[in-house]
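Hi, here's the filled form for the chain we discussed.

Project: internal
Contact: R.S.
Residues: 288
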Amino acid sequence: MSDGDSIDDQITEAEPKETEAPYDPTALEGVPEAGRARLQQNRAGLFTSDLSVNEFLLIKQAGFDPVGLVVGSSIYHIGIQLAGWKRSQELSVLSEAMYSARQLAMTRMEEEADQLGADGIVGVRLDVGRYEWGQDMAEFIAIGTAIKHREGVLHRAPSGRPFTSDLSGQDFWTLMRTGHRPVGMVMGSCVYHVAHRGMLQSMAQTGRNVELANYTQALYDARELAMERMQSEAQEIKAEGIVGVQLQEKSHGWGSHTIEFFAIGTGIIPTESPDGGIEPPTPVLDLS
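And the returned structure, exactly as it came back:
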């Protein structure tokens, strides 16, 4: 979409609404032979991990062992949707594409974790890559470290799938110490077209301190849609709350007036109270 679009009404491709990919814990669809050999090596006892040394030690102290680095990938064609020059609106075709592609990558990463018998995945990163050979295509990648409880205590999500979390090793250890545990990453996406200002309006505001109300409202609306969808996901997985929420804004090459607002965090639930209560924080003086 370019800034020169002058269509007054929304125009979209006719395509069915995307549905969530079915989850199959035995699936190895799309995993290349080298990937299957890698998982076999992990099952035999050789773990891989993107944890730092400190994160590795804290994961171990929390009672878990890393079992392998797990990856999910989806290269997705993003449909066409145009918007009016002077109209602020969500571009629902693009919102659906960005969400569904990430969900596919996440599902495949979880299926790899299931192949390793993991309880969950920590340190999950979701990246979007674009390549010169496909302007309307993007690769969505989910990657993290699968972990398993050393004593065999089940820590999976209520759905039976491995839990997912973008918490660092330190944050995961701290969360477990407070008597809570992650049940899943939750996210909400909203791709929004922000209306342009008219020439007369721009001239009238030149040299003045004045709020640009149309921009304020458009960005406010878009963020709220992303946040609302993230919270709805948290309710679906029966989370008590969400920690580590991030609000990201990126254009992804659609033009200066089309932005994706992406909300993501980790849904958590309480477990039993930690032994001895929560220790008070220890002040640390940084000498560097």
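Let me know if anything looks off before we file it.
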